[in-house]
Every structure is written in C-alpha cells, then in structure tokens.
Amino acid sequence: MFVNNNPSFGSTRIPYKDVPVAKYLEPLNKYFEVKGFELMKPQQAADKLDFSKAAAMLDKDAMIIVGKDGGPGGADTFIGRLLKEIDPDVKYVDDVKPVEIDGPVIDLTV
Fold this sequence. Notes:
This protein is of the alpha+beta class. It has helices at 22-28, 42-48, 75-86, and strands spanning 12-15, 33-37, 53-58, 62-66.
C-alpha cells in the first residue's frame, strides 16, 4: 500500500516492506526513464529532470517517485494516476509545480 504521510517528502511513497518495488517501476519504464536521485525535496528533484525522466529517491523506509512537472497535465500527476491503477490505495500529493514556458501561446484551435 502507498502511503504519503509527509507531503514535503514526495509525491508518491512506496514503502519497502509492503510492496515489491519492481512491480511499480516496470509500468513507469514504459513512459519514463526512471533515474536514481539522492534524497531531496520533490520540487528540487523535478527541477533536475528532463521531460522524459522520473526520479526515484530512497529514504530509510520508502522509495519516492517524482515527475518533471505537476498540475492536471503534468508528468508527476500522470505518475500518481498510473501508480493508483496498480494500487487503488495510493495516496498522491501534487507537490511539484507545473512547468512554466516562456514564449507566445500557440493557438491549436485554428
């Protein structure tokens, strides 16, 4: 079962004792290159990621998964939804900000 007791520590926490970690990384690898990071706040990890990557960080009792950007269409949110499909008890916290892109808006409705 996923637990997120402390939102300052990550978007999705996978406790070692409760789940086989590979069960959760395999589906993520279809969409992202999961890279190991030293333990840091989720936003710090997100800022170091490229768009096609996700961060996996370890603390003393859990693996923490973070995507590049948050918000409704962000990678972090997608990862949370994907992992919730694997385990309906997942607790997800959107603690990574959406990516801001400087430049003109492209109107795709024309």
